[in-house]
Amino acid sequence: MKKRTRRSRSQHENELLGLALLALGLVLAAILYLGLDGGAVGSWLAGVLTEIIGNAAYVLPVALVALGGLLLARSDLLEVRPFRLGVGVSFLGLMTLLGKDSGGFIGLAIGGTLAALIGQTGAAIIGGALLVAGLLLVTGASTGAIMRRTGHVMKQAGTGARRAFEWPSSESQTAEDVHTGEPALAARPRHELLDGAESYPDVVGASHRQRRARSAGR
What we know:
This protein is about 85% helix and about 0% strand. The protein has about 220 residues and is mostly helical. The chain has 2 domains: about 10-75, no CATH class; about 80-170. The termini are far apart. About 15% of the residues are buried. The mean pLDDT is about 75.
């Protein structure tokens, strides 16, 4: 009972967290993409995010909506380690690419430090490599989960289709057997009863004919 209670609580917590992330992503999208008034709290939050992560704040609403949708759908992708690692590596690569000019405080700390150590070109190469590696991890994890789910669905569909094909074939064979059997029955000659006294009078004799005549007269 305790395990079931903990499991149900975790599922409800994930759903509430997913709903909160989805709502936050939609609010940020309305403020950053459409330029709508987010009020004091919304405008302040958008400004703080822009200062912290720079232009990456415009990617954040999409990421929040995607994560919220996965949590609401109870997707297994969030439990896959490559997916979570890929999200972190992608964010790190994006911050490195944006650097100190467009990456906010985080971009300044990561990209600016790498640029000071290995130059702007080296930092851009490392940032691009990290971003591609993260996307490959995310895509590989999601593709693997989709392939497993698709394989299971295809297996069920194949079993159903095989049963559907076997059922009409058995019915058609039965119908063919019935139809093929009818001409055979129709082609059989009908055996009629013969009157032995009329067909073979020499063998039966006259006494038998007399008895038949008497019985007919009665």
